[in-house]
């Protein structure tokens, strides 16, 4: 591939997998400074078909073939299938009326020859050289740009800020019912992350010491609650920031957050849209991750990591004082704090208040009305 072509790392990987020379894509990229993004590449493929192959590359099935057939699937499932070169025709759906959902694609292992089979495996990737101990090298990606900036910042955070972690398990039964009701009444759909974000913002108002940063001037506490939401973007993890989030309702957060997340995935965020955060939420629940701890996003003193919601057997007290076992949708969340600034009591109070609000979701909406 030509080095003078502006193309994101993710788009370059897709081009390599599909045996495409980016120089043949004569389209203006929508990424930073006209760079070609993965979205540009896939859109060009659907319109133009196969491009000039990269010498030595083994082409995968075209996007049109991946999306072909009568398979019913969600848009996210189709996107992931296209990224992975998997045909939807051979995947059993577990959604409503047999619709294929994201988890079906992620958990599908195609046979060597049956529907959904790929024409290229990891062993078939062409190599450009070998390591001294005999490993074949497929590609060397420069450790530079956004990836290096992120890595350097997180390394500094982990080395300089003593991290302390606090985990709570949250019952989302009422919140999921509330979300379903809200979404049934409007076109703009809210996500669980929007309610978590609102709960975090409200809790930061209750405990302003958490909405702070350690600077050379001392511990700065902020009147602005600028909430960062970690997003996987083509250039790596990035944190778009919802500015003055304390002024927004759950639905307002949904509108602001979805617009920023879309721009982040397309590589179109301006510097003002990913700087100036005062607290961060990182949600990996959509990937089925059951528990994880996040590294602080400096100079912030707190970050909340949110995991997947899973049905679990829990002990529930009855009104007569007895107890019973019930199946509830439970979610783990872990608060990471900078122990130089935040002590254990404050962190415990903070994460417990977030839990209380998520388990009493009507309060999230009532405060919106006020």
Please describe the topology of this protein:
Layout: H1 9-17, H2 38-48, H3 63-66, H4 75-84, H5 102-106, E1 129-130, E2 136-137, H6 145-160, E3 163-171, H7 173-184, H8 192-206, E4 212-215, E5 218-221, E6 227-229, E7 231-233, E8 236-238, E9 241-242, H9 250-265, E10 279-283, E11 302-317, E12 323-338, H10 344-359, H11 362-369
Parallel strand pairs: 6-10, 10-11
Antiparallel strand pairs: 1-2, 3-12, 4-5, 6-9, 7-8, 11-12
Write a structural description.
The structure is a single chain. 33% of the residues lie in helices and 19% in strands. With 370 residues, it is an alpha+beta fold. A six-stranded mixed sheet has the order 3-12-11-10-6-9. Helix 1 runs parallel beside helix 2 and helix 8 crosses helix 9. It starts with 8 loop residues before the first helix and ends with a helix. About 9% of the residues have low confidence.
